[in-house]
Specification:
About 70% of the residues lie in helices and about 0% in strands. The protein has 18 helices and no strands.
Length: about 300
């Protein structure tokens, strides 16, 4: 699977939230809002009524709302809303994640290292600390932190390591006690996209159901469906799903990146250039653009070895 979609890569802090999802499983009381978050239905998370929640779930619910706000592109607003939250490890972790999303890496890393040192048993610290550490290529530290909690699923990190065997092991273990958990199903589908073959179709069924069911549809699930369609060679269907995602949010960088890939495969150079220009406008440092620039330089370097010498 390409690295710009739903398999395991929520992509730079913005895209990264769309693709790399590391989390702990949740209580029944938070199941609806938890699933909405991982389906990419961020507005539904923000609208979720917390007034009747038990005291023990107030903080986890607010953390999900803050993460949804960050994922929606309002990291600064999320950060501002936590100005008075100076003691709770959960909110300190969210603050660091918001800072990282805003590009303040030094401050974010300093905060993450401090709270990991003092509150490594806190689930939010494990989740967000693990995400940031992985984004900084500190994989072993991320895995060590996440391993402290049984409910944390490290499959996406193992996919980034090209260790499909370890990812499969994680998901198989999780299925023993969370058979119908949404996140387990999504993770298993990520792995299916990497394994290929008949697993493409199995992954498609999961993503297609999420994308086409009104209660779970989102740009995130539409992009996932499009990628599975692409791998199955169903290019028009993939294009339709990506177009729908871009109708929902024309600035969605994950959708734009995958639209570039698909337009290239389909030989639609005009559309490719259109999506490329828009992606450059929305996020000039997107991983796809960086990769293209690197490949362009390598090509020019190789071509230069064969250029005719002028005497």
């Amino acid at each position: 699977m390409d690295p710009f979609s739903a398999e395991g890569g929520e992509l730079d802090p913005a895209n990264f939230r769309r693709v790399l999802t590391l989390t702990s499983f949740t209580t029944a009381e938070l199941l609806t809002v938890h699933n909405a978050f991982h389906q990419g239905q961020y507005q539904a998370v923000l609208d979720f009524d917390t007034s009747s929640l038990s005291q023990s779930n107030i903080i986890p619910a607010r953390v999900l709302k803050l993460r949804a706000r960050i994922a929606s592109g309002d990291a600064q607003g999320a950060l501002s809303s936590m100005e008075k939250d100076t003691a709770c490890p959960d909110f300190l972790a969210v603050k660091a994640f918001a800072q990282y999303s805003l590009g303040d890496t030094p401050a974010a890393m300093k905060q993450i290292e401090q709270i990991v040192g003092s509150s490594s048993e806190n689930a939010t610290v494990q989740i967000l600390g693990g995400i940031v550490l992985q984004l900084e290529d500190r994989t072993e530290e991320a895995l060590s932190l996440l391993s402290k909690h049984q409910g944390n699923l490290e499959a996406s990190i193992h996919l980034q390591q090209n260790r499909t065997d370890l990812a499969l092991k994680e998901v198989s273990a999780a299925k023993k006690w969370a058979q119908d958990n949404l996140l387990v199903n999504i993770a298993e589908s990520w792995i299916g996209m990497r394994v290929g073959g008949e697993s493409y179709q199995s992954a498609f069924y999961v993503f297609e159901e999420m994308a086409q069911t009104p209660s779970s549809s989102s740009s995130k699930s539409l992009i996932s469906q499009a990628i599975s369609e692409l791998h199955l060679g169903r290019f028009p269907e993939a294009e339709a799903a990506l177009n729908q995602a871009l109708q929902n949010d024309p600035k969605d960088t994950a959708a734009l990146a995958n639209a570039i890939v698909l337009a290239t495969i389909m030989g639609k150079s005009a559309e490719q250039q259109q999506y490329l220009t828009e992606l450059q406008r929305q996020q000039s440092d997107h991983v796809l653009l960086s990769d293209l620039e690197e490949k362009r330089g390598l090509f020019d370097q190789a071509a230069g070895k064969y250029a005719a010498k002028v005497r």
